[in-house]
Design goal:
The protein has 7 helices and 10 strands. It has 245 residues and is of the alpha+beta class. Strands 1, 2, 5, 6, 7, 8, 9 and 10 form an 8-stranded mixed β-sheet that branches. It has a two-stranded antiparallel ribbon with strand order 3-4. Bound molecules: adenosine monophosphate and manganese (II) ion.
Length: 245
């Protein structure tokens, strides 16, 4: 039995506790969690991926500023994604594991630290957003490097990287600009991405102010329109295989 003088205090504590619990539940329902919370799940598998980017002064056709080079890759499954892979936290830190994966995929052991960590979340079943219904936790990092390093990585990824032509079919740069005909970022975002890679990319572009929210909105609307055209195009191409309508 709580003495009367503590009653209002204990009410306050229990109110705060239930608020914290509700916040925690809301967070977990979205699939998001901190790096430390993620590591508490010993029954989970962990995968780490990183967005490497640099500034650049180069211009496309000598007049369209590129502003930033953002690296992604064409994966073995035909989907676009970020470099990285499975990590075993009982044997290595998440960041050491990610650096090991980068050596295999890029041919360069780019050092990644906890400061580069952006978010951890449960892998989605399908929807492309985070969810708590899986046992795979994805850890996402972002690291800014020099343009010269990006060039070295691109060279090594196609020559010395162990995974070249296997898990990685090639590195790609993300076009952040929009051409007069609406090409560029809009077309890029209409491709198919692994898991939450598209939202990881869009979130990072917004958070780091690499593209304005308005330009991103326009680009994504363009991507949606392009999807309808792609469906028609696929229908037409399917006929090449002899498939009857
Ligand atoms: P990897 O070895 O790079 O294929 O990644 C390990 C696991 O993470 C695989 O099950 C992938 O399907 C998954 N994965 C990789 N990148 C992402 C991503 N951006 N979003 C969600 N799942 C991913
Ligand atoms: Mn990988």
């Amino acid at each position: 039995m709580i003495p009367p003088k503590y009653r209002s205090f204990s009410r306050l504590v229990s109110c705060l506790q239930s608020r914290l619990l509700a916040q925690h539940r809301k967070k977990m329902a979205s699939g998001q969690m901190s790096r430390d919370e993620a590591l508490e799940c010993t029954r989970c598998r962990h995968a780490c991926h990183v967005m490497l980017y640099s500034e650049t002064a180069t211009q496309l056709f000598g007049r369209i500023p590129i502003w930033y080079i953002v690296l992604m890759q064409m994966r073995f499954d035909g989907l676009l994604g970020f470099p990285g892979g499975f990590v075993n936290p009982s044997e290595e830190t998440l960041e050491a594991g990610l650096t090991r994966e980068l050596l295999e995929e890029l041919g360069v052991a780019v050092p990644v630290s906890t400061e580069d960590h952006v978010e951890s979340c449960f892998s989605p079943p399908r929807s492309g957003t985070c969810s708590s219904s899986s046992r795979l936790i994805l850890h996402f990092y972002v690291k800014k490097i020099e343009e010269e390093q990006i060039r070295e990585i691109e060279k090594a990824a196609a020559s010395t990287a162990a995974d070249h032509g296997l898990e990685v079919l090639g590195m790609v740069r993300v076009p952040l600009y929009t051409t007069k005909s609406g090409g560029g970022l809009s077309c890029f975002l209409s491709h198919s991405f692994i898991g939450v890679a598209r939202s990881q990319l869009v979130n990072s572009l917004l958070r780091l102010h690499l593209v304005s929210p308005g330009d991103l909105r326009e680009a994504l609307r363009g991507s949606q329109r392009r999807h309808a055209e792609s469906a028609q195009n696929l229908q037409a191409v399917l006929k090449l295989t002899g498939e009857q309508p």
